[in-house]
Amino acid sequence: MCGIIGYVGTKNSVPFLIEGLKKLEYRGYDSAGIAVVQDGQVQRVRAVGKVVELEKATLLASPHGNCGIGHTRWATHGKPSEENSHPHTDCSGEIVVVHNGIIENFLILKEKLQTLGHKFQSETDTEVIAHLIEENLKHTRAASEEDRLFRAVMKTSNELHGAFAYSVMWAHTPQQIIGVKNQSPLAVGVGKNENFLASDVPAFLKYTNKVLFLEDGQTVVLTPKEVKLYGMDGKETKVKTTKISWDQKTAEKSGYPHFMLKEIYEQAQGIEDTLRTAKEDFGRILGLKTEDLRKIKNVYLVACGTAYHAAMIGKYYLENFAGVTASVDLASEFKYRTIPPSKDTLCIAVSQSGETADTLGAVKKAQELGFKRLAICNVLGSGLTRACGSVFFTHCGPEISVASTKAFTSQIISLYALAVFLGHASGNISQKVFNKLYKELLSIPKSVTETLKIEYDVRHLTKKVYKSNRFIFLGRNVDYPIALEGALKLKEISYVSAEGFAAGEIKHGPISIIDKGTPVIVLMPKNQLFDKMLSACQECRARGAFVIALTTPDGKEEAASVCDKQIIVPQASEYLQPVLDVIALQFFAYWIAKRLGCDIDQPRNLAKSVTVE
Ligand code: F6R
């Protein structure tokens, strides 16, 4: 939540800052701001709303400087207003700070600084950083102003509690920006005669793919020519960069009206890329020997939101293919459970961003319990990948739309592959069964490509129902989490009420909310549960529901007699069918939101990475 950015080089930093903030906007869009150093003075421009408002304000103020920092905000402390927008300054207005995360002890620090005479202008926790640096600078001596700032920042960081990443610029050091990371992400882009800093790589990917991912407790000092990295003890440490393989296009809309639609269409590729490394990676991924694998009897899956729905499907896979007992928990709830410690338990954390505070908290608990930890994650260098002993990367490229789509299908595929490999390695499934399952898995990108052709039909269908203010999604077995996901997707981008239920449950209560015309989307691919789903359709229809059956070609005729409309997706094996079914529901949510004129990529009140608990 919140995105920070910085540039130091030979060019005017402003166009880069604005462009980069637009790429980080998915992290929050309540307000935005930039500051540059110009002729030894700080120029700051801030605006409430999206980055385009800031862009307009910048055109009027026309700041110019070779060194600048910026921020896009998801409000935590204080309402979205200009005063609460970053960058924040000290009393002199010469020190500017942008920050992502939460300073937990800010009230104590604020009171202390106020008694020392500091005057605050915002309600934010961030502002204490600027004043604390100002205070620490007063008591710091060094050979140069650059070194003095560095020392004051190091001292300041030691006084801050919480999860944060921040960047500082000072009018007296116009060729230097400093970045600090502690549990919130921070990456540095290493360029030629220019260096970049941002919460996420797409912000500077156009200029460099040489990236340094900071570790917790590290501080980085950027000048146009140098990147210097320091540990918590203030000692310089080696800069190790990673070459990012995504090209810039992956982080752009490439002609699509929305990132969400583009990302829906990228799913076949995302799955294929994820599968490409699966065999090799899972061979060594768990870092476990076969005898250790055999000992794993319990698996806890933890995740939030859409990733939680993928984890729910993973539970079915692990039980069915790997023969282990699996349970799935909302990461935010996992920490309240009382679970016995064990060395033979595996905790699998599923997360697109690898930054979700609740998921990181759950993994911390798993570590305390002595569990082995595996992350299924899409972002290189993220906190989760460092918190887990093993990592399997979903290779679906950067996901920009706040509503997760391609990460979800890659997560399902990863969990399927994991369960199948685990089942094979532990002897739960024979070589013959393994070969069959693996073959089915490899054929899924082709089926996904086929499924993507249904957009037109789904779009047409949404014309009938988009004015409804309540939707119900029903599924069973592996399609139950898909019903939940279909409802989540719809409510998050259309703001309408949508609920997903296990089809067998509706008669135990939820059926009472159905009245004339309520759209009920029933997931009923032709499989062993098809007949039960036919009954569910009939029950809903008898109460006046407008039933939309999502079925496969073989179920088409029978479904026609119990529904008002149909969506036909290709048939896959029972356990892979959810991957195809969800695509229809992603299009469904997209087209309803589009017809309602909603802000699809940046729905209200949300941010993509939820870095607060
Ligand atoms: C919904 C959505 C969220 C995320 C959730 C977890 O479309 O995107 O529900 O799935 O916040 O995020 P990650 O996967 O980054 O941990």
Explain what you see.
The protein has 613 residues and is an alpha/beta fold. It has 3 domains: 3-252, Glutamine Phosphoribosylpyrophosphate, subunit 1, domain 1, CATH 3.60.20; 256-442, Rossmann fold, CATH 3.40.50.10490; 452-613, Glucose-6-phosphate isomerase like protein, domain 1 (Rossmann fold, 3-Layer(aba) Sandwich). 38% of the residues lie in helices and 22% in strands. It contains 20 helices and 25 strands. The strands form 4 sheets. An 8-stranded antiparallel β-sheet has the order 3-2-4-1-10-9-11-15, covered by helices on one side. A 7-stranded antiparallel β-sheet has the order 5-6-7-8-12-13-14. A 5-stranded parallel β-sheet has the order 17-16-18-19-20, with helices on both faces. Strand 9 (187-190) and strand 10 (195-198) form a beta hairpin. The longest helix has 20 residues, at 406-425. The chain is globular. It binds fructose -6-phosphate (F6R). Residues 304-307, 351-353, 356, 359, 403-404, 488, 492, 609-610 line the site of fructose -6-phosphate.
Characteristics:
613 residues, 8-stranded antiparallel beta sheet, Rossmann fold, binds fructose -6-phosphate, 7-stranded antiparallel beta sheet, alpha/beta, Glutamine Phosphoribosylpyrophosphate, subunit 1, domain 1, globular
* Terminal CA distance: 11 Å
Q: Tell me what portion of residues adopts beta-strand conformation.
A: 15-25%
Number-wise, the strands total 25
CATH architecture of the largest domain: 4-Layer Sandwich
Number of discrete domains: 3
The CATH homologous superfamily of the largest domain corresponds to: Aminohydrolase, N-terminal nucleophile (Ntn) domain
Profile the largest sheet: 8 strands, antiparallel
Question: Which spans have pLDDT < 50 for at least 5 consecutive residues?
Answer: none
Would you tell me the overall average pLDDT? 93
- Radius of gyration over alpha carbons? 26 Å
Strand order of the largest sheet: 3-2-4-1-10-9-11-15
Overall, the morphology is: globular
